[in-house]
């Protein structure tokens, strides 16, 4: 078993710093990883990502590559296909709500062309074609918090079936804990503890439930990833719980809605740049923000860009939102030292 994660410091608060090393490339943690659309972070080019000091990692949704897997194989890997050789790892997995209805050897996935069922063997072949460094197996998503014991047992059984298929074919696999209740989440952790070769854990679990869980010793020194959508105010709680990786869809949660994120870890606020009050607003997005958008443009200009559907408006908002969340993470880490 190859260990890709090293803890470099453990704070009294629970926050830990570390590094993930894969294929000769290293990424420091904790880190925010942006969810992608067909492998790209919307509205942000490679050079902009470098200027924003983004970690060399992206979260890839498996559904985005259903119709391009053969083309990817011709290129050799998804890194070559996307032209981003500096990607540290991409995790193929679906972030889906409780409406997901999994069956024995299939799972529902969401792609840019809609929802469809995917067989476990299809998913394996897709992962082999894409060749990401770390893979998430398919996982069952229970419909509600209050489920019958028989349904909970079935959820564990399905998740383990998906996991076995993935472990047998890939070196770096994260086990997935997907539950709304403490009992089911703890049972899933106990099941995953039987597989010591797992690279880490990914949680699709409410933060309030995670705080009640007992993480098995087998995973105490392995990276922990959080899959559910989070706000800046959630970062502090997750960091104190020892989480290392946070999947954030900045574009979907904020930018495409015309929202600029402001505030801190105690109180997240937002500014809707679509509002009429910004038509003649000469203030920057955020007065004390050092990002390019805030230092060079005013709210009225971005309001105009959004109303006319100019791409630059979304680019500027994306720059600010990514910068803000990264700076918030850095400030939380520094405060704990």
From TrEMBL:
Signal sequence residues: none
Any single GO BP term: tRNA modification
Record domain tRNA-guanine(15) transglycosylase-like: where: 15-329
Pfam families on file: TGT (PF01702)
InterPro entries found in the cross-reference section: Queuine_tRNA-ribosyltrfase, TGT-like_sf, tRNA_ribo_trans-like
SUPFAM superfamilies the UniProt entry points to: tRNA-guanine transglycosylase
UniProt-recorded name of the protein: tRNA-guanine transglycosylase
Organism: Rozella allomycis (strain CSF55)
């Amino acid at each position: 078993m190859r260990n890709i994660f090293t803890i470099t410091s453990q704070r009294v608060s629970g926050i830990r710093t570390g590094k993930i090393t894969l294929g000769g490339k290293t990424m420091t943690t904790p880190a925010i990883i942006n969810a992608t659309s067909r492998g790209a972070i919307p509205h942000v080019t490679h050079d902009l990502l470098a200027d924003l000091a983004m970690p060399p990692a992206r979260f890839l949704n498996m559904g985005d590559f259903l119709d391009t897997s053969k083309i990817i194989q011709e290129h050799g890997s998804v890194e070559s296909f996307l032209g981003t050789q500096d990607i540290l790892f991409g995790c193929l997995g679906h972030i889906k709500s409780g409406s997901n209805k999994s069956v024995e050897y299939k799972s529902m996935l969401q792609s840019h062309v809609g929802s469809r069922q995917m067989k476990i063997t299809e998913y394996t072949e897709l992962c082999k074609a894409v060749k990401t460094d770390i893979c998430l197996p398919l996982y069952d998503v229970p419909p509600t918090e209050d489920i019958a014991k028989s349904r909970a047992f079935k959820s564990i059984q399905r998740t383990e079936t998906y996991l076995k298929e993935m472990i047998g074919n890939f070196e770096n696999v994260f086990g997935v804990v997907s539950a709304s209740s403490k009992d089911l989440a703890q049972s899933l952790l106990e099941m995953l503890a039987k597989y010591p070769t797992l690279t880490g854990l990914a949680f699709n679990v409410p933060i309030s439930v995670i705080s009640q869980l007992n993480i098995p010793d087998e995973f105490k020194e392995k990276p922990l990833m959080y899959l559910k959508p989070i706000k800046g105010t959630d970062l502090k709680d997750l960091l104190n719980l020892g989480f290392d990786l946070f999947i954030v869809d900045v574009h979907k949660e904020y930018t495409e809605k015309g929202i600029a994120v402001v505030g801190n870890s105690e109180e997240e606020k937002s500014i809707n740049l679509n509002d009429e009050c910004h038509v003649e607003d000469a203030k920057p997005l955020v007065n004390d923000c050092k990002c390019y958008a805030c230092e060079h443009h005013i709210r009225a200009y971005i309001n105009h860009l959004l109303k006319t559907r100019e791409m630059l408006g979304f680019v500027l908002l994306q720059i600010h939102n990514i910068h803000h969340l990264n700076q918030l993470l850095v400030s939380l880490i520094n405060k704990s030292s």
